[in-house]
Amino acid sequence: MASREWMIVKSTLDRLVNDTVAKIATATGNVVAVSEVEDVTNFETVLKDGAPAVLYQLMRLNPSPRAPRFEAVFNIGAKTTDDSGNYVLSAILGELQELFKPGNRFDLRDYSEAGLQTDKHGGMLITDGDINPQQFDKQSGIRTIGCKAAVLCNGG
Amino acid sequence: MLLGDVIAELCDTPIYYLDGTSWVLSPVLCKVPPYDRFISDRAFGQKKRLVQTPGGQHLPSASYYRPGSNTSRTYMVESVNEDQDSHGEYLSVYMMREAADVCEVLTQQTIPRPSGTPKKEWVVSSTVWADFDRFGVLRSDELDGVDYTSYTVTLPTSVLLPGDCRLRIDNALYAIQENFVQLELRQLRVRGINGQP
């Protein structure tokens, strides 16, 4: 049977980000798009669109020292275009920083398919979160937060 | 006896038209004369028939027709011309093109996963009849020596295609490259995708 740890952590991250995006949209009154950076069907469209967007990417999920204990590394940030002074960007980053601040814990569930999310497969504890320097040349409206998390996941 | 009266006597063939999902008998009778198979376009008359109706009597407006019976071959109207004399219109001539191929129109449906991330799937949104024919060669503008086959899909203009769709004919997928109207029919230039030549 295939290993499910990556799917579980990734789909949980998808769920957390989508919930936060909905909350940000309500709080700011703006339409906020969302895209995983590695989502080739969606990322280009979101990047070119004028609406603000939350971008994220699960970079690594490594045994630490061995399964079921892992260390997750992911980036999560925001992109804005028509944003004088980057205040919309900063507001979105603030929401994301609050969600993923060190010490916050999240249950891990498999949100990939309907019906699988009822079982809890472990937990994720945010251990580190720094706002990265600007990562994209000539796209000054993108900033990400580099996060690390301790993960206990039994794989489903 | 007027010419129109003669034509009306000769038109004794029933013709059915597609109304929704069922074939309905037209109130207008027609005549299906032999079509000269030697004076035609590349389809050499094999895909085309003439349907004649008496002057002033037009076929009900529909996408598809079946002359003779509701199980005969399916045709689309390519053009219609009225013949007239000093007494008025005496004959309507319909050029019909056979729609022999079943064409599935696929559109992308977005289904949200429990994670909130959308799952996109290509689903069949409608099934139509079409004429599917080879058009020519498309040379790749990226790879030397690589050629693709361009096909023509002909549909009635009443068939509305979604903005972003794919076509599936005989289990092969095609993307639309061009879309234009010629006479009473819509013609699409398509190219095979997902490994189709």
Please, could you describe this protein's structure?
- The complex is a heterodimer of chains A (156) and B (197).
- Chain A is α+β, with helices and mostly antiparallel strands.
- Chain A has three helices and six strands; from the N terminus they run H-E-H-E-E-H-E-E-E.
- Chain A has a six-stranded mixed sheet with strand order 1-2-3-6-5-4.
- The termini of chain A are close together.
- With 197 residues, chain B is mainly β.
- Helix content of chain B is 4%, strand content 55%.
- Chain B has one helix at residues 3-10; strands spanning 15-19, 22-25, 48-54, 65-67, 75-85, 88-98, 101-112, 118-139, 147-156, 165-169, 172-182, 185-192.
- In chain B, the strands form three sheets. Chain B has a six-stranded antiparallel barrel.
- Chain B is elongated and about 75 Å long.
- The model of chain B has no long low-confidence stretch (mean pLDDT 87).
- The interface between A and B is small, with 15 and 6 residues.
